[in-house]
Predict the structure.
Amino acid sequence: MFSVMGGTMKAPDFDYLRPATLDAAIALLASSDGDAMPLAGGQSLMPMMNFRVASPSALIDLADLAELRGISRDGSSIRIGAMTRYAELAASAEVMAALPLFGMALPHIAHDAIRNRGTLGGTIALGDPAAEMPALALALGAKIELAGPDGTRVIDADEFYLGYYETARAPDELIVAIHYPVALSDHRFGFHELTQRHGDYALAGAVVARTAQGHRVAFFGVADRPLRLPALEQALNTNPDVQSALHHLSAIAFTGDVKASAATRQRLAAVALTRALQGMTQ
Ligand SMILES: Cc1cc2nc3c(=O)[nH]c(=O)nc-3n(C[C@H](O)[C@H](O)[C@H](O)COP(=O)(O)OP(=O)(O)OC[C@H]3O[C@@H](n4cnc5c(N)ncnc54)[C@H](O)[C@@H]3O)c2cc1C
């Protein structure tokens, strides 16, 4: 995203605020009229500010908010606090067991240094169309817990991604946690992404979750947002031969850019889906 922006710059001046509680953070966001931005791991926001893609008047650091931390199991779902870092996810035996897709996807997200700082809430909030975690949220049917001046609400990941870096989160809301259904023994998962180099953002990627209800398939890196294709999922439910489902890909408005044309991305999406299905957990 930043490679076409020209030379490196310094971020414009901003205030740095570090509230101690969730309520105080929301009050700061609400009083800023959309001018302040939450700061999580800074792995996307700081480069965006340096390149002046974002120029908030203030950063509200979420580091001290205990409400945004922790991993807990609640029956058939697992709740992961927004400030949980990628490295913590990878190190959590509970997450790896409950969410096999995390183990498949996390090694593809950037590099160690970024995974040590970047957070789940940050990537879910940013809504980069080529990011892995938003697509996992769609494939798994995750729910996103938001807190704002009017209280808390929970929104399906399916309803969250609206357009290019555009989400259903209001500027004065924070993502508190993400809730995922825990994998059952008969659930199967597949993941594949195609990149120019390991750790780069995907040119095209596919995530598959198969449960008793059928397939959920999410694509990333292909369009203005992560997305599912219900007709393609239905086709896989009735005939597991991927070739018979690939024509549904033409419903996607594929992105064409300096890295790959729209036609190339369509071919790469077909490859990613085919390989994700071939590599399904047994
Ligand atoms: C070289 C490089 C390579 C990368 N490669 C990949 C990759 O392959 N795949 C990938 O997915 N990502 C990649 N990233 C991005 C990385 O995953 C980021 O860490 C992630 O996108 C944002 O997480 P963060 O915690 O750093 O959030 P920040 O950068 O702090 O914030 C990101 C955005 O989310 C908002 N935000 C953060 N937390 C919350 C919250 N709790 N509630 C509401 N809004 C919030 C911020 O205001 C900001 O707009 C890469 C980054 C770099 C620098």
